[in-house]
Amino acid sequence: MDLKGTRHLLKKEGLAPKKKLGQNFLVHKHTAQRIVDLAKITQDDVIVEVGVGLGALSEPLARAAKLVIGIEADSGIVRMHQEHKDLPENVQLHHQDILQADLEQLAQESGGRLKIVANLPYSISTPFLFRLFQHSNIMESAVIMLQKEVADRLVAQPGTKEYGVPTVLLSSCAAVKMLMRVKPEEFHPRPKVDSAVVELTFFPASERIRNLDRVEPKKLRKVVNAAFGQRRKTLVNALRGGGFTADKQQITQVIESCGLLPSIRAERLSVEDFVQLTNALDQL
Q1: Is 203:211 a contact under the CB 8 Å cutoff?
Q2: Which of 22, 85, 163, 237 is placed for a possible disulfide with 121 were both Cys, Cβ 3.0 to 4.6 Å?
């Protein structure tokens, strides 16, 4: 469907892009097909699509996969698809908010770990990424359209301003790869920023930390949040103010035991450093 067709369909159905849902509909078939091609889907795959929208991604996904479980929060769009039965037969449409959905149940329905493809609304990108981290044990892969600024954070390197909490947490459980950039004119309405498609390939532990002691995700997130929560502070002071012991000497000793300087700042730590630090702090 092109831009003209998208506008016509929305008007005909009495629908409009909803700002509160962060809706930007893909309007070029070649872009949707390119995303599906990059996702390397096979005929045996069950794919969870987040944000069905008008079906731009659903149709090429359905051609490539055995089954598509489509998650859509907009009741008007769900009604339209149900009335017209315009989605391929192997697309199951669920009226759900992915931030509230039972991901464990979705994994059971899909017959294994989740494979996700999504043109993700900007408004939910960050909480959705944290859900992926929290449920990484049931994730196989995710190919996601994001605001380019958010995508840049996921692939950022230590020492850069983009490097932060999402970078560390997702890198601890997945290999993250930038796949393609998408210009504003590919959407209706046009967003004010560029978008990007990223691929996350999940593991019980990412290859980077596989040889380190196992880390509990909740404890890692607490340490990473504390370290970046006061980004301009030194690591020792950020951890003291982040819910750990107020004993500066004790925190200093723990940091030094990991081969780090207490005066270092969070953005200088690698993912491996954060894992070692989390396990060391867990001994306090």
Answers
A1: no
A2: 22
Distance CA 261, CA 269 (A): 10
Bridge partners of 139, per DSSP, are 114
Q: Is 99 helix (H, G, I), strand (E, B) or coil?
A: coil
Q: Which amino acid would we find at residue 81?
A: H
Q: Is the pTM of this model over 0.90?
A: yes
In sequence order, the 6+-apart residues with CB closer than 8 A to the CB of 52 are 58, 70, 71, 72, 77, 81, 87, 91, 93
Residue among 260, 264, 255, 261 at smallest CA distance from 284: 255
At 18-45, the pLDDT tens digits run 887 888 999 999 999 999 999 999 999 9
Domains in the chain, CATH or no CATH each: 3-208 (3.40.50.150), 217-281 (1.10.8.100)
In this structure, which amino acid lies at residue 36?
V
